[in-house]
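Peptidyl-prolyl cis-trans isomerase
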Amino acid sequence: MEGYLGDTNFHRIIKGFITQGGDSTGTGEGSKIYGEPFKDKFYTRLRFCRRNLIAMDNAEKNDNVSQFFFTLSSTPDLRKKHTIFGTATGEFIYSMLKLKEALVDEVNLMFSRKYINN
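C-alpha coordinates:
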Protein backbone atom coordinates (compact mmCIF):
# COMPACT_ATOMS: atom_id res chain seq x y z
CA MET A 1 0.00 0.00 0.00
CA GLU A 2 3.03 2.25 -0.08
CA GLY A 3 2.14 5.55 -1.69
CA TYR A 4 -1.63 5.02 -1.59
CA LEU A 5 -2.30 6.73 1.74
CA GLY A 6 -0.50 10.01 1.12
CA ASP A 7 -2.22 12.91 2.88
CA THR A 8 -5.17 10.78 3.94
CA ASN A 9 -7.45 12.61 6.35
CA PHE A 10 -8.53 10.57 9.38
CA HIS A 11 -11.71 12.20 10.64
CA ARG A 12 -13.08 9.72 13.17
CA ILE A 13 -11.55 7.78 16.03
CA ILE A 14 -13.42 5.44 18.33
CA LYS A 15 -10.95 4.78 21.13
CA GLY A 16 -9.95 1.13 21.41
CA PHE A 17 -11.98 0.25 18.31
CA ILE A 18 -11.19 1.93 14.94
CA THR A 19 -9.59 4.92 13.22
CA GLN A 20 -11.55 5.92 10.10
CA GLY A 21 -10.36 7.84 7.04
CA GLY A 22 -10.47 7.97 3.27
CA ASP A 23 -13.13 10.67 2.93
CA SER A 24 -11.67 13.47 0.83
CA THR A 25 -14.07 15.99 2.42
CA GLY A 26 -12.77 15.16 5.90
CA THR A 27 -16.27 15.17 7.34
CA GLY A 28 -17.28 11.51 7.16
CA GLU A 29 -20.09 12.40 4.78
CA GLY A 30 -18.24 10.51 2.07
CA SER A 31 -17.06 11.11 -1.41
CA LYS A 32 -17.01 8.66 -4.29
CA ILE A 33 -13.51 9.05 -5.67
CA TYR A 34 -13.48 5.53 -7.14
CA GLY A 35 -16.76 5.59 -9.05
CA GLU A 36 -19.69 3.36 -8.14
CA PRO A 37 -19.79 1.37 -4.87
CA PHE A 38 -18.35 -2.11 -5.05
CA LYS A 39 -19.41 -5.37 -3.41
CA ASP A 40 -18.19 -6.76 -0.10
CA LYS A 41 -15.77 -9.69 -0.20
CA PHE A 42 -15.34 -11.95 2.79
CA TYR A 43 -12.73 -14.67 3.28
CA THR A 44 -12.93 -17.28 6.03
CA ARG A 45 -9.21 -16.93 6.82
CA LEU A 46 -9.45 -13.17 7.39
CA ARG A 47 -10.94 -12.23 10.74
CA PHE A 48 -11.12 -9.11 12.87
CA CYS A 49 -9.07 -10.71 15.63
CA ARG A 50 -6.34 -8.10 16.21
CA ARG A 51 -5.31 -4.49 15.76
CA ASN A 52 -3.65 -3.05 12.62
CA LEU A 53 -6.10 -4.57 10.13
CA ILE A 54 -7.27 -2.32 7.27
CA ALA A 55 -10.85 -2.72 6.02
CA MET A 56 -13.43 -0.90 3.93
CA ASP A 57 -15.98 1.20 5.75
CA ASN A 58 -19.51 1.04 4.38
CA ALA A 59 -22.94 2.32 5.33
CA GLU A 60 -24.67 -0.89 4.26
CA LYS A 61 -24.09 -4.17 2.45
CA ASN A 62 -22.14 -3.86 -0.84
CA ASP A 63 -21.76 -0.08 -0.42
CA ASN A 64 -17.96 0.33 -0.43
CA VAL A 65 -16.66 3.61 -1.85
CA SER A 66 -13.52 5.36 -0.55
CA GLN A 67 -13.65 5.25 3.25
CA PHE A 68 -11.68 2.68 5.21
CA PHE A 69 -10.57 2.06 8.78
CA PHE A 70 -7.80 0.54 10.88
CA THR A 71 -8.65 -1.67 13.81
CA LEU A 72 -7.19 -0.55 17.14
CA SER A 73 -8.02 -3.86 18.84
CA SER A 74 -9.80 -7.15 18.19
CA THR A 75 -13.22 -6.32 16.68
CA PRO A 76 -15.07 -9.62 16.07
CA ASP A 77 -18.46 -7.86 15.70
CA LEU A 78 -17.28 -6.50 12.33
CA ARG A 79 -16.93 -9.96 10.78
CA LYS A 80 -18.89 -10.37 7.52
CA LYS A 81 -19.79 -6.67 7.59
CA HIS A 82 -16.59 -5.07 6.27
CA THR A 83 -14.02 -6.25 3.72
CA ILE A 84 -10.50 -6.66 5.13
CA PHE A 85 -7.90 -5.73 2.53
CA GLY A 86 -4.64 -5.16 4.38
CA THR A 87 -2.51 -4.95 7.50
CA ALA A 88 -0.58 -1.96 8.79
CA THR A 89 3.12 -2.79 9.15
CA GLY A 90 6.48 -1.16 9.81
CA GLU A 91 6.72 2.55 10.58
CA PHE A 92 3.08 3.04 9.60
CA ILE A 93 1.99 1.38 12.86
CA TYR A 94 3.55 4.24 14.85
CA SER A 95 1.54 6.82 12.89
CA MET A 96 -1.63 4.86 13.52
CA LEU A 97 -0.89 4.61 17.24
CA LYS A 98 -0.44 8.40 17.39
CA LEU A 99 -3.87 8.86 15.81
CA LYS A 100 -5.55 6.94 18.60
CA GLU A 101 -4.26 9.54 21.08
CA ALA A 102 -6.09 12.39 19.32
CA LEU A 103 -8.80 14.38 21.09
CA VAL A 104 -12.33 13.66 19.87
CA ASP A 105 -15.74 15.23 20.46
CA GLU A 106 -18.93 13.53 21.69
CA VAL A 107 -19.54 11.83 18.31
CA ASN A 108 -15.91 10.63 17.92
CA LEU A 109 -14.88 13.27 15.37
CA MET A 110 -11.37 14.63 15.81
CA PHE A 111 -10.93 18.20 17.04
CA SER A 112 -7.89 18.69 14.83
CA ARG A 113 -7.44 16.75 11.62
CA LYS A 114 -4.53 14.33 11.39
CA TYR A 115 -2.91 13.18 8.19
CA ILE A 116 -0.63 10.37 7.20
CA ASN A 117 2.07 11.57 4.86
CA ASN A 118 3.88 9.18 2.55
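The radius of gyration is 13 Å.
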